[in-house]
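Write out the 3D structure for:
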Amino acid sequence: MLGIFDSGIGGLTVVRELLKRSPQTSFVYLGDTARWPYGNKAPETVQRYALEDAQFLIDRGATDIVVACNTASALALDQLRTAFPTVRFFDVISPAISAVQSQSWKRVGVIGTRATIGSRIYEMRLKEERPSLEVLSVACPLFVPLAEENWGQYPETKRIARRYLAPLRQKQIEALILGCTHYPLLVDVIKASLQQRVHIVDSPSALLDDIQRDAPEILDQHGTPEQRFFFTDVSAHTDAVASRWLGRTIKGERAEI
């Protein structure tokens, strides 16, 4: 059983990509909506929450877990692997790093939450193998609520995106890593704000590429799938957003953590 957790509902973009490629895969999703967002919390808090999230999924049969949260991937992955050594963890940062390393770009941008950008995880890992690579990072905290409110085409969102992305536009980056699972929902306004041809690296797509290559047995399932959605704060709004993103009716179950 595949487990997927996120600080809220942004990880549903991973579920959306999973269902597009392998609709028969069984999984259990946990969105920690009661304690969202993780992006502005201390590292120790994020680590504690991530361990609790993983334990919840393991208790429901998860043997492989996707950490569908850039903040938790940046701050808690080592703790998760130490605490649960028999569980295979997939994060959303490593696939994006690999995607960039396979290319010859010289200037790469990264956008994400304050915690993800503040951790410098993308910059450090990208420069490990290519010290000469120029990495420009920008925190875009307002993108998360704008994505959840489906405001991608509103003029206000376009103005905010232009302001956030101005430093990247001025540096004429060649590629941009969307360092938050919410951000693929705003990819059109992000592309338009850059005003130039930039290769977009989004976490859900890169992650599923890696799973298909390295662990295809997770996706190679048959029969009637079991697919459950848990949230620590269940609301009509969450169900509505999840249903809109996934194109099917979602009725979340309450998770007690």
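Strands lie at 2-6, 27-31, 64-67, 88-91, 107-112, 134-139, 175-179, 199-202, 227-231, 253-254.
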